[in-house]
Request: fold
Amino acid sequence: KAGVTQTPRYLIKTRGQQVTLSCSPISGHRSVSWYQQTPGQGLQFLFEYFSETQRNKGNFPGRFSGRQFSNSRSEMNVSTLELGDSALYLCASSLVGGSGDTEAFFGQGTRLTVV
Amino acid sequence: GESVGLHLPTLSVQEGDNSIINCAYSNSASDYFIWYKQESGKGPQFIIDIRSNMDKRQGQRVTVLLNKTVKHLSLQIAATQPGDSAVYFCAETPMFSGGYNKLIFGAGTRLAVHP
Reply:
């Protein structure tokens, strides 16, 4: 079956702009998590959505937001972009999470460059 | 490919040797641990996991050891192959995080396999 699909793969934006990234989870998976990966900070958890509700949130400013649709597809939005937002944004999906199936499958990521 | 981490610790091994990658985790309340492999330009790929009620778990060519007393996790790769060259991350999930999809990642170790 198809894996986790993230679009676009690469994106270049200017400071102050906003950006929306998309993630399509594996069919049947209801949990979607987002992570930011940078050389300096490594992989950091942004938030997790399950059944259209944000279930967990990391320590990122309010400029970072997300949502999940009824078909489990998820989007994350970053407003008022800063140079430091340049990173690889990764999406992971899993069946249920919690006490259920726990393996998270990652997409290839969206490489965001802010100039 | 994208740079996962410019200053990661590197483990260099000869093809055919066994590799041991270590990780110190931070939260004594974590109860689920995972090892991921990330190749250049790709998202993290699940290797093996272990719950806190276990000390050891074996997979195909890989073994994970958990020492809760000193909060230490290790990944052993038998008969290391060139295809094992990648960055390896340990991840933990704190108990009561509301779900197992809030992963806290370690800094990563780069494994370089030489013929």
Notes: Chain B touches chain A through 31 residues (CB under 8 Å).
